[in-house]
Structure prediction request, 58 residues.
Amino acid sequence: MSQFTVTGQFKTRDGYAEFETTVDAENEDVAREHALSQLGSQHGLKRTEIDLEEVDAQ
Prediction:
């Protein structure tokens, strides 16, 4: 498995907040899914409220 750094922003009460998270995944698509799942769970967000800007392999 590879590590991927996922960056983007998500909607908050006051506008948007930027984030950067590192996930272990087999490929970029799986890394995107893990990031959406983590942020949605931690912040109570729907997938449409999260904008993924970049996925980089490390």
The domain at 2-57 is CATH 3.10.20.10 (Ubiquitin-like (UB roll)). The mean pLDDT is 95. The beta strands are 2-12, 15-25, 50-57. The chain has one domain: 2-57.
